[in-house]
Amino acid sequence: MLLGSVGAVGLAVLACSQPLCPAGMSVVGSAYCIDSFEVAVVTEVRDLAGERRPVSTAVSRRDAEPTTGLSWRAAREVCAATPHGPGFKHLATSAEWEDAGDGHMGPGGTRFPYGDDWVSGRCGLPDAGAGPLALSAPPRTGSHAGCRSVWKVYDLLGGAWEWVDPGKVLDLGGELARASLTLEGDLVRDAPGATVEAMWPGRVEFAGGEVRLLGNGRDWKRPERGWLHSGEARLPVSLRWSGDTAQLVLDRARDGEPVTEKRGGAYYAGAGVDLRYAYDGHDPDFIGSIGFRCAGPLLR
Predict the structure, then answer these.
(1) Gap between the Cα atoms of 250 and 290, Å rounded
(2) Which residues are bridge partners to 234 per DSSP?
(3) Residue 243 neighbours by CB under 8 Å, 6+ apart
(4) How many CB atoms lie within 10 A of CB 11?
(5) Is the backbone peptide bond immediately before 83 cis, with ω within 30 degrees of 0?
(6) Is there a domain that residue 182 lies in?
(7) Residue 91 sits in the same domain as residue 140
(8) Prediction pTM value
(9) Which of 60, 65, 221, 226 is spaced 20 to 30 A from 20 at the CA atom?
């Protein structure tokens, strides 16, 4: 009987000594694991189905160079290829990312990882009124020791922008129902009060059914895709250029594609970015200076 009791206690102690998350990840609200630092991608050659193939996985560690330049789809694939206990990780969702930063599960929490009030120098963002920081790349992970949430998650502001998964798809039919516009086939002829947000790079304006480049046309690249904002609706469009003007064509092929989000305010973003700021204007294959982090369930 005594041996049985000791055995039960021993098993309980052993269970408690097992980590809730793998190395390089933090426990958030006793609910899930998330990478403590922005991901550094490592590529190795492995045997897969009898063939030697390169496989990229996500590594979270201090004093690493965050990996940027992957599309949203590629970031999601890297997380899905990274082992996590008996399964694999996933690209952090919008809610997981925000809860990891604001110290609160669900709505609410702080504006910054360390509290509600801005503290100069805590994260890699400039003070209000100052220009972007004079850096050519994101700081190495963990460089700002004070830019840490209560869950011990670092660099959520002022490192690289970070891809997250909002778990949405583009519903073109729903957007059209909310829009105020006139179509001729898929050509946008009239959209009262609408604006055009062009995919990077390029700056455009929409007036009188015509898109124009802002500034000297020789100095601005002509974006080929963008979003037409019409009231509460946001519609995917293609831009067909002739000189410095373009026609807007509804891009029906993007119906049902994933909606992406980036969070975190990169070091070059300037002041005014907090944990609530989200940008959802990039398509899933856009490649820019955006990093990411992965998440996964607790190991026990």
Answers:
(1) 27
(2) 229
(3) 217
(4) 10
(5) no
(6) yes
(7) yes
(8) 0.87
(9) 65
**Position 53: which residue type?**
R
Give me the domain span that covers residue 196. Answer: 171-254
CB-side exposure of 116: number of CA atoms within 13 Å?
A: 4
Whether residue 165 contacts residue 176, with contact meaning beta carbons closer than 8 Å, is answered with no
Q: Measured between alpha carbons, how far is 153 from 178 in angstroms, rounded to an integer?
A: 39
| Closest to 186 in 3D by CA, of 199, 198, 172 | 172
Q: Are 249 and 188 in contact (CB under 8 A)?
A: yes
Residues 6+ apart with CB under 8 A from 25: 33, 34, 35, 36, 60, 296
Instruction: Report residue 98 CA to chain centroid gap.
Output: 11
**Over its length of 300 residues, how does the chain's per-residue pLDDT go in tens digits?**
444 444 544 434 344 557 899 999 999 999 999 999 999 999 988 887 788 888 899 999 999 999 999 999 999 999 999 999 999 999 999 999 999 999 999 999 999 999 999 998 899 887 765 665 656 788 999 999 999 999 999 999 999 999 999 999 999 999 999 999 999 999 999 898 898 988 766 778 887 778 888 765 555 678 888 999 998 999 999 999 988 889 999 999 999 999 999 999 888 877 778 999 999 989 899 999 999 999 999 998
Assess contact for 168 and 234: CB atoms under 8 A: no
In a domain, 5, yes or no: no
Query: Is 41 in the same domain as 56?
Result: yes
CATH value at residue 205: 2.40.10
What beta strand segments (E) does the chain contain? Answer: 25-28, 32-35, 40-48, 51-59, 83-84, 87-88, 90-91, 161-169, 182-184, 187-190, 195-198, 204-207, 210-213, 225-230, 233-242, 245-250, 258-263, 278-279, 290-292, 294-297
Helix (H, G, I), strand (E, B) or coil at 276: coil
Residues 101 and 111: beta-carbon distance below 8 Å? no
